[in-house]
Specification:
The chain has 351 residues and is an all-alpha fold. The protein has one domain. It has twelve helices and two strands. Strands 1-2 form a two-stranded antiparallel ribbon.
Length: 351
């Protein structure tokens, strides 16, 4: 528990202290957001707001995670390092995307093929890695199985598992990216999801099969360290939200959204809660579905169901204030997280 608190605290301090300096640097070099011409009119005022703030979230999380291990004189685990690899790797892909947008002064960065290639390289490296490195009890960071509240069904072939993991990584990193359309929306929703994984990792530690062999124990390799990873990212996100709250002084950009989406999937895979992620990240799923429905409807019927997709922009065009949308969507995400954590706890309860 001490490691969780130290990681979150260090990351929060780094994020809060570094953000003003980063904002000034980004302003100086004119690393500002390019706004889509077809977006809501209210977004025109956001043109030029510094972006790539996800750099600070990543930096805070790295210092928080490794700082916690240094303070407590413990070694990082393979599970924690692999999730951090996915987190930072996806952030690097997002950074390239953001940099190209700024350098070429356009709202589109990496070409879709190049972006997918970067996500694939990082995702495959993670997916293969989590099936290796067994500990003394034979537990690897993840097993090649599907999971909801724990693993179920027969093991998948390695290639099939890699494809499934890659589908989750690419899908969820893009889902967080779609959600990052209003000040503070994606950051707040991610914070709530990370709180869930801090609780799940801590609970799995207390009911680990290593220390408490029973039919309801969890064969998770490094549950405590996964909670430390989640706490480190949580602290960075909270510090970032201080400056990202409406009206935002900085945006996370693809640097932050792709990194955080990858991180959440990494935590889901290593805690054996892959399908539970659809509940814990329910708002991200809902917003992504709105885009899919909008595109499908327009291609099939020539009509749009929403005034604009993603969903948050539909309510903007209906006249809702930005802060109203953000707070109400946070409430929705909080309900999803509550249901997800509740399902996780109720499944464990002895019958």
């Amino acid at each position: 528990m001490t490691g969780i608190l130290v990681a979150a605290g260090l990351s929060l301090i780094v994020s809060l202290l570094a953000m003003p300096l980063v904002i000034r640097i980004l302003f100086r070099f004119k690393f500002g957001q390019e706004v889509r011409d077809d977006g809501p009119e209210g977004h025109k005022t956001k043109q030029g707001t510094p972006t790539m703030g996800g750099i600070v979230i990543i930096l805070g999380a790295i210092i928080g995670y490794f700082g916690a291990h240094l303070v407590l004189m413990t070694r990082p685990t393979v599970s924690g390092l692999l999730v951090m690899f996915l987190f930072v790797g996806m952030g690097c892909v997002g950074f390239l995307d953001d940099f190209i947008k700024i350098y070429k002064r356009r709202s589109l960065g990496l070409r879709s093929g190049a972006k997918m290639l970067g996500q694939t390289i990082v995702g495959v490296g993670f997916a293969v890695g989590v099936t290796m490195f067994p500990n003394g009890y034979g537990y690897t960071p993840a097993s090649p199985q599907l999971s909801f509240l724990r693993d179920f069904g027969p093991p998948l072939m390695l290639g099939v598992f890699v494809i499934w993991a890659l589908f989750l990584i690419v899908g969820f990193s893009n889902a967080v990216n779609l959600t990052d359309g209003l000040d503070g929306l994606a950051t707040g929703a991610t914070i709530l999801s990370l709180v869930a994984y801090v609780l799940i990792g801590n609970w799995q530690l207390r009911q680990s099969c290593v220390a408490y062999l029973s039919p309801s124990c969890y064969p998770v390799r490094d549950p405590l360290d996964l909670a430390v990873v989640a706490a480190a990212a949580l602290g960075g996100c909270i510090g970032f939200l201080w400056y990202n709250a409406p009206p935002a002084k900085i945006f996370m950009g693809d640097t932050g959204s792709l990194a955080l989406g990858g991180l959440i999937v990494g935590l889901a895979i290593t805690t054996r809660t892959q399908l539970l992620l659809l509940v814990i990240g329910g708002l991200f799923v809902l917003i992504t579905m709105s885009v899919m429905v909008q595109i499908s409807s327009f291609r099939l019927t020539g009509r749009r169901i929403f005034r604009m997709a993603p969903l948050q922009h539909h309510f903007e065009l209906k006249g809702w204030a930005e802060t109203t949308i953000v707070i109400r969507f946070w409430i929705i995400q909080g309900l999803f997280v509550g249901v997800g954590v509740g399902l996780f706890y109720l499944e464990w309860m002895p019958r």
